[in-house]
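Progress narrative, work stream C.
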Amino acid sequence: MKIGKVPENVLKRSVFKQIHTKRPEVVLGAGVGEDCAAIKLAADETLVMSTDPITGTAKDIGTLAIQITVNDLASAGAEPVGVLLTVLLPENIREAKLRAMMEQVEAACAKVGVQVMGGHTEVTAVVNQPVITVCGVGKVKDGHIISTAGARPGMDILVTKWIGIEGTSIIAKEHEEELLTRFSAPFIEKAKELDVYLSVLSEAAVAVRSGVSAMHDVTEGGIFGALWEMAEASGVGLEIDIKKIPIRQETVEICEFFGINPYQLISSGCMLMAAEDGNTLVRELEKAGIPATIIGKATEGNDRVLLNADEQRFLEPPKTDELYKVGGVENA
């Protein structure tokens, strides 16, 4: 396609015609020439917004774009309502690829009841693979927002499911041939299918009902990055037992194969939480079929300590995600 705005006929045919999910709160939505979206909220509701780009992969980009943004809204205790998309496309892309991306977007939106309210779609020479930036909009009752900054000394720190599952799935999909030189096809398929765990909507809803004090979706920078960000936002220290951090065998082996650190690997689908009574929260999550593990405590002061048997070291500020060390993102 030619550089510039996506032509109106392509926009109507391959973008708007893929959008079907509607929300009653949205009173002005996507349309040719519309620069804004509008949402009508009840008097006792607060608007919650989040924005994120998908840059680390080109496969399943439409699905991931929605999932990651919805997870961010859920981590604030909000109900996702709608999204605005900025889609940047390279010159060599085919219209069929754009249509497929929008079909992924709509399928992901329909699954969680979210409306595509508008956005911008452009072909540009400044990208060499598709990039989707999503602005998510949600709502929460007044006084019920959960923040990353809610951890207090003495609180239990816990995580849901397993770390590294998003990165494991992405690597398995994009480096399948390379991985087949060591691993069996069923093993790689199992790794690819970890993407079924990427939503944190269920655990966020259970946690909000069960008295969670802070939540943070574990994304770029992995669990180490998320722990640092929660501690920094809350002004607390940490004592974290590395051996208690849950990790899948697929993640361990694929990270060993590429020589990367699973604790610094993008981990959407894993929610970091702080709670006064972590054991009760773990039980409530497990009743809902969501595995959860207490991995440590928040402490007074600023020391963020990682314990590993008799050894200890200090947590460092977030670094570049390990996913980018693997490289080879496909631009299909």
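Work stream C, second folded protein:
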Amino acid sequence: MRAPISVIIPTLNAERHLGDCLTALMPGLDAGLLRELIVSDGGSSDATVEIAKAWGAEVIEGTPSRGAQLARGCLAAKGRWYLVLHADTCLAGDWVGPVIQHMNGAGAGWFRLAFKEGGFAGRIVSGWANLRSRLGLPYGDQGLLIPATLYARCGGYPNQPLMEDVALARALKGHLSAIDATAVTSAARYKEQGWLRRGARNLWTLIRYFGGVSPQQLANTYRN
């Protein structure tokens, strides 16, 4: 029987983090869980694509929109399960056992969030993120493990540049649960912008999205 999991990673100038992300997946390869690696690139100008190919990934290139990139990656995937990860997120510790246990069910799962070198502020922010996830709204930097059949039934990732993870989480209401393993993500943006400032901006963006502001308008504001 073929390995069950297709790994899908959206990238855009991710050469700094991609190697660490892929290295953390090696226990899954050794355990016979990983069928393929798909990197969906949005037009990187650095060495991201070369790194991905050196690792044996199938690289899909297209427009730089997180939702569209994820949709293209999932469309190409052949596994019975999709493991969606951001390039600056690494699965930590012994994640293989909890993933195998989760795959005994039929729902989607998210990983506990932690920040690399996040300190006290990182623990506060990740604590909020994990609480939000238990309420049904995990973000993409926590990783998502989802059966291909459930992904198709829920309509998959929408073609939008921001909040694609929230849109899918809302479609998966009642089908999401925690996986007893940790996803460690980069704290670089929080450190650059300030933990309080970035956290407040993320929350305000979520509130505006729920209030009906378009993802494109939100993305324009977010970049600025």
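The first helix runs from residue 15 to 23. No further action is required on this item.
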